[in-house]
């Protein structure tokens, strides 16, 4: 059993360094990607206590809801729609400081105020996205992007 918690006063960078080491250890012998994504979502959610942490996976030209932690979410997202769909279309991380100001934002939860979405690749194609929402404005920055991209890299290595 793993506990992914750190004291509240721990700096964000230290939390990320700790969780990355723990995730590497957690998934090193696992091959099932749904199990891996499930535990990574839980680990991030436990560590940072964000509103929603989860994955959408590309299937039949849509993003389909995958493993997540948090409130009920949208089942399907079209390419280019919302933050997740734009991340897929543009193949790049998108940080949104205020979701109300993002054109075409899909409000799966009215509690979401800011968001970061990162693409996950397999064989140079988008496999899916890591989506994280916060109840606070301006929750995400370049530090989050840097460390979350390291977590995405762990996932991409497991995808082969």
Summarize the structure.
This protein is of the alpha+beta class and 160 residues long. It has helices at residues 12-27, 33-48, 82-90, 142-159; strands spanning 52-59, 62-69, 76-77, 94-96, 114-122, 125-134. The protein has a six-stranded antiparallel sheet, sandwiched between helices.
Descriptors for this entry?
single chain; 160 residues; alpha+beta; 6-stranded antiparallel sheet; 6 strands
List the helices and strands and how they pair.
Blueprint: H1 12-27, H2 33-48, E1 52-59, E2 62-69, E3 76-77, H3 82-90, E4 94-96, E5 114-122, E6 125-134, H4 142-159
Antiparallel strand pairs: 1-2, 1-6, 2-3, 4-5, 5-6
Structure commentary:
The chain has 160 residues and is an alpha+beta fold. Helices cover 37% and strands 25% of the residues. The chain is built from four helices and six strands. A six-stranded antiparallel sheet has the order 3-2-1-6-5-4, sandwiched between helices. Strand 5 (114-122) and strand 6 (125-134) form a beta hairpin. Helix 1 (12-27) packs antiparallel against helix 2 (33-48), helix 1 (12-27) packs parallel to helix 4 and helix 2 runs antiparallel to helix 4 (142-159). The longest helix has 18 residues, at 142-159. The chain starts with 11 loop residues before the first helix and ends with a helix.
Q: Termini, distance in Å?
A: 26 Å
Q: What is the residue-averaged pLDDT?
A: 93
Main structural class: alpha+beta
* Number of contiguous helices: 4
As residue ranges, the low-confidence spans are: none
Taking the sheet with the most strands, its summary is: 6 strands, antiparallel
C-alpha-based Rg, rounded: 15 Å
Question: Beta-sheet strand percentage?
Answer: 25-35%
Q: Give me the count of strands.
A: 6
Oligomer: single chain
Shape: globular
Q: How do the strands line up in the largest sheet?
A: 3-2-1-6-5-4
**H/E element sequence:** HHEEEHEEEH
* Helical content (DSSP H or I, runs of 4+): 25-40%
């Amino acid at each position: 059993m793993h506990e992914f918690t750190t004291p509240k006063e721990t700096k964000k960078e230290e939390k990320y360094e700790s969780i990355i080491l723990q995730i590497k250890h957690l998934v090193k012998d696992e091959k099932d990607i749904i199990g891996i994504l499930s535990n990574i979502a839980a680990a991030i959610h436990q560590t940072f206590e964000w509103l929603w942490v989860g994955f959408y996976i590309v299937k039949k030209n849509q993003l389909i809801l995958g493993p997540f932690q948090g409130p009920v979410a949208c089942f399907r997202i079209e390419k280019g729609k919302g933050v997740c769909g734009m991340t897929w279309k543009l193949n790049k991380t998108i940080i949104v400081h205020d979701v109300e100001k993002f054109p075409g934002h899909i409000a799966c939860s009215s509690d979401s105020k800011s968001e970061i979405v990162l693409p996950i690749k397999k064989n140079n194609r988008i496999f899916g996205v890591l989506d994280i929402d916060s109840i606070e404005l301006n929750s995400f920055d370049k530090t989050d992007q840097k460390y979350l991209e390291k977590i995405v890299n762990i996932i991409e290595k497991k995808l082969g």
